[in-house]
Amino acid sequence: MSKSKYLNGLEEQNLTRGNTDKPLSFLPMVITWGDCDAAGISYYARYFDWFTNGRLHLLKKYGFPYMRSFHDRGIAVVGLKAQCQYKRMLKPDEEVVLETTLANLTRTRATFLYVVRKADGSIAADGSTEHAFVDSGDGRPFDLNKRYPEFWKELHMMLSAAI
């Protein structure tokens, strides 16, 4: 995928973690036919799949790939709330950029914000998700600091220093 005008503009402005107060990632994507309904318009539920991709991309960018950092420790990052506001339709072959921001991180929860931007920088959709840290074995939520103090310290230092 070629870089969109929007993403090129971000790089030219040097908009990186150093210029924002929260952990942030940009994930370029191309809308596929598989992302669309029979009318050829992006299907509403696909946005939540994209949000998952953006969240995993952000965690990996900051050194916390999901499988190694969470899954392999028995930590499930379970969705509690999800919302999306659709503003402009997307069609196959459109290039977009998914902006993901970690808005809040506590010892038991994390909240992420998302913006899907078209190549011209206009907003196609925005949304948020809230997650709890849950034991993948018994399904009970827990405090990361109590169960994994070293992991919490590393995660907290890297991701929430500016939150």
What do you see in this structure?
The chain has one domain: Roll (Thiol Ester Dehydrase, Chain A), CATH 3.10.129. A hairpin with a 4-residue loop joins strand 4 and strand 5. Helices cover 27% and strands 33% of the residues. The longest helix is centred in the first third of the chain and has 16 residues, at 46-61. The protein is built from five helices and five strands, in the order H-E-H-H-E-E-E-E-H-H. Strands 1-3-4-5-2 form a five-stranded antiparallel β-sheet, with helices on one face. With 163 residues, it is of the alpha+beta class.
Summarize the structure.
With 163 residues, this protein is α+β, with helices and mostly antiparallel strands. Helices cover 27% and strands 33% of the residues.
* Arrangement of strands in the largest sheet: 1-3-4-5-2
CATH top level assignment: Alpha Beta
CATH superfamily: Hotdog Thioesterase
Structural class designation: alpha+beta
Order of helices and strands: HEHHEEEEHH
Total strands: 5
Number of domains: 1
The gross shape turns out to be elongated
- Second-tier CATH architecture: Roll
Low-confidence stretches: 11-19
Helicity range: 25-40%
Average pLDDT level: 90
The biggest beta sheet is recorded as: 5 strands, antiparallel
CATH topology description: Thiol Ester Dehydrase, Chain A
Number of helices: 5
Radius of gyration: 17 Å
Strand content: 25-35%
Distance between the termini: 32 Å
